[in-house]
Amino acid sequence: MYRVAAWVVALTAAAVTVAIVRADPGDSVAGESALALTAEVAAGLLLVAAALAARLETWLRVLLAASGIAWLIAEWNSPGAGAAFSVGLVLYAAWPAVLAHAALRYADRSLGWPERALLAVAYAGSLLLLGAGTAVFFDPVEQGCLDCPANRLLLSSHPEAVHDLGRAGLLVAGVWAAAFVALALFRLARASWTRRRVEIPVLVPVAVAVAVFGARALHGRERGFLSNDPTDRAYVAAEVAALVLVAAGVVWARVRARRMRAELTRLVVDLGQSPPPGGLRDQLADAFGDPSLDILHAQTGGTWIDGTGRPADLDGHSDQQVTRLLAGGRPVSAVLHRPGLFEEPAMAAELADAARLALEHERLNALRRAHLESLRASRGRIVATADAERRSLERDLHDGAQQRLATLAIAIRLARRQLAREDQGLDAELGAAEDGLRVALAELRELAHGLIPAVLAHEGLKPAVEALAERWPRLVVGDLPAGRFAAPVESAAYFLVAETLRRSGDGDVAVTARRADGRLLVQLRGATGIAVSTTDLEDRVGAVGGTLDATEGTLCAELPCGF
Amino acid sequence: MRILIADDEALLRDGLARLLEDAGFEVVGRCGDADALLRMVDARLPDVAVVDIRMPPNNTDDGLVAAQEIRRRHSRIGVLVLSHHLEAHYAMRLLEEVPERAGYLLKERVSDVAVLADALRRIGEGECVVDPTIVSRLVARQRARGPLDELTEREREVLALIAEGLSNTAIGERMYLSPKTIEAHISQIFMKLDLLPAADQHRRVLAVLAYLRGS
Question: Which of these three, A375, A398, A426, is where a domain ends?
């Protein structure tokens, strides 16, 4: 809707300008030349068109369109202006200030005090000194413009005030134009590479237009007003060229954004073909040409994970910039990137638009993976705790009960030696007690061993499984790796063998194991019944991140060595 | 015989010492951890050290490690390790390096003074002794093919009894066979296990070792 309104205003202004120039070409800036007039009007309309076409925030759009319309109004202070004459008197010098304002806002949404001060001076010089200030004292008839329309703003005629205000206004215009050029160059010199790439196409032509206007103002300072002598006309031609370049620069940013969008759209299509975990990172790094680019996702509790679900540090990258992507006001993902990559507003907007689905897809996948990992770790901790309990119980049995009973057996034997000759019956009873103690010791040993064999913790998997073969003659021990593994891995493999033996039938069970590619592979082959009810074994193997494959007669476990 | 006792349980240590003294052994020292054991052995040079496998400082297999160290330092000093562990692996570790004058008995035998005294004497004579419970478990064990497969059932039985530390005469009595027959079996065993004629005592120990290895 506002586009239509803007076009109506712009086209009306353009029509009025054409009419004014046609009515009195001699007093216009464009002059008799149709080409000059066309170029002049085209420059203004192109600015409006660029403002409406580009992805800009509203105020910037308004400012840019306004500068185009103000440019058209510059012709309205001519005798041929008719009813528009008074408006032209006030606004004919407004366009450089509005254009400078638009450019500064384009470069940086929030203006600092130097920019604000500069714009205040520019607006004051253009609208008050050259515009309204002059208009209230300018009597066209008294100043010799007999065919000028009536000045409806005239309060009282003061030709000298008009002259002085004009001179002052033109001086101020020259000064602020110079200051603006300096400020623009300073900004560009300090900006990052990406930032500069964004700002140059707009800021440089604006600076040129403003500089030419400043030069033209200083050129007209002696006579006290902007005129249309050949030098003025040359300057205006330069201004027209600069304004066309401004419009082109604004549109160029739009084209670049479209290209980025096309790139990102392709990216979304690529991601549609089930990308590998963390694949989005590579795709975006390609699309934005930043190999250091990384994507992290927020977990509840303020921690961050990468695309594969592994914990990652958001603050650990001092040479990178962090752009947080928000949903419902909370950061859900973050992009780590080369400083300045997203300073171009369109880039971040395009990323958010085009890659939203892909990002969300990856984020949910990463969260799911992290969640699974934390579940697995928790299961691992539960098993590790249970194993630690078993070990501690085994130690307590060994150092406590077993030692105590052995001591007791010796004490009985000592007592028997003293009593033997005196009381045969008592000796027999003590002998029976001693036998009972021996049985108790053997049973305790079995109990302690069943909890968790000391040989597993002290000597490792191979001796522990070989010891199982001493206990279970049905176990046929094949090749086993001699080295040590992490305790939870050794326990898992050991209990897999021991439990399979315990619950399988009468037939032989053959065990082999080997280390391959950082994994411990355990294979059990045996008679029927070997693979029945393996849920608890799967749990134990799964707790260390391994897998158990049970088929009739065979059990294969794959355990990561370095758990 | 001069005996040294190392066990972290003071009551057991003292009771064992009294039992051995009653049986005619001379107990020349008692200690409760592996470091003290090594120092005491160096200072008092006993004939045999009786060592609990699990002792401070680590309470894992410190006694076994100390026993191996004693065997390395003093070839004439025997070691008898007492253990709650049935696994042949521990016995192997003790016997593998220097099999002579070493023994491995389950702790529940400590009150059986006859067994203990017999084991100590055999160790003193240069043999090695392995607890019969462990040996009987090894008999049943299945193993990969090796020289032991060459032995007949009877020969394997004889070898098991040798491992338990029995003399030829005792083996003959146990199996109701004449000493001559036993000797014939034993020379067959030595031949099949590829043990060349050397000191007879040494060959017996090597045969036991081959048996423990299971191949």
Answer: A375
